[in-house]
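If your schedule permits, I should be very grateful for your opinion on a structural question. Please examine both parts with care and let me know of anything in them that strikes you as inconsistent. The record follows directly beneath this note:
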Amino acid sequence: MFTKLSVTVCSMAMLTGMAASAAPAEAASTPSKITSVRSTPGPGAGQITISWKQDGQHTSAFKIKTGLTSFSSGHSGRHPDVFTVPGSRRSVTLSAAQVAAAGAGVGSGNHLYFRVSAVNGSTTRAYPYLQAVLPKAAAPKASGTDIRVGTFNVRTARATSDKRTWLRRAPDVAREIKLKDPGVLAMQELGPGRADGKVGSLNGAIRQTTSLTRALRSVGAGQYKLVRETAYAKPGTTHGTQGARILYDSSRYSVLSSCHETTGGSNYSSSCGFDLPRLAGDSKAKTRSAAYAQLRDRRTGKHFWVVSVHLDDRHSGSTSKEKSYNALRGRQMAFAYGKVSAVSHGEQVIIAGDVNSWQNNAVGNAPHDFLVSKGFYDTAAAQTRVNIQYPTVNHFQTSLKAAGQGYGVRIDVVMVKGARGAKRFENVTKRVDSARPSDHNLVVTDLVL
């Protein structure tokens, strides 16, 4: 009566039929408790296996309820789904198609929250603990161009009330970059204004952008260059953050895009940058610039594109307002993708940055989900993951707390189109650190393009 694939799954209609055939006394009995539940990725790419222990008493079936956000026994999470299996089973392997339908496809980087319940007619008994699991990662291709790419929000120099301002932290940021040795790094909050955080013209002071390349030279990493250091907008115009930048190792990569630092005799240029959409009614001060460039691997000759984004940071306790901000971030990402897709002509594209959005947001994760819908692979779904249990934003806290179900909030992402799978993903952080380089962690991932 059941169809066997890699997993035996019966429909809700079949479960209803089981309940109808049960004796009235049996239907009134509470199922025996489930004593343990465990989950493992696989065995195949995109698959998940869930197993449990229970003595089988008063049980006609088991239900596995899933969601993309945490949920309680009485409330569903975002994108809820239910899988039902016969009471004789004690394990189930969800196929890659089933996991994808539940919202955690192999390239999404999403983990699946789940809870197992025993069923007897209309009576259910849930295992008390919510759990989460990532599907098994896809393997990257065996040969190609290896690249370590990352993202790092380094905290604006204008945060002059911080205990450790930018000029004190810049050498730490430089050492962190040197230690992890990315080939290309999308950066945020690395602005073209004064490195000392003062507002106004430079007047002999150096830019925050320039101060980073100087700090890199001071720690023996002078091969790192910025695609652009000056402003994207004409000085004196109202504009929001211009801190989205692209850093690259010039010994390994060259920039193919024409990224000019000046316009005529003025120290600004819109080259290799573009402004993201804002909400109707927002002032120009809410305008955010993104950065993009085409690069070439000097060893292999491989061409690829990199985009650095820093999406709108507003959030609200009001569901309607939060939905509008989530939708805005989705439009901003769609605009960024549209810009690069118009010039990339099928070459591989890496979009990385601080998206100010995360999976467990109840109203949605629009920028991430948009990229997944366009075929991007979230590199958090790598074969090896380091510090995935911690958030990528640390707020300069001395101690970080691991997430209850094992997956920390990731608002800093690295996503790639045209490359399936990733070797390694690292959220570069320590659980205890009293001198963090930034309020965000450096994130790096190893790809094969």
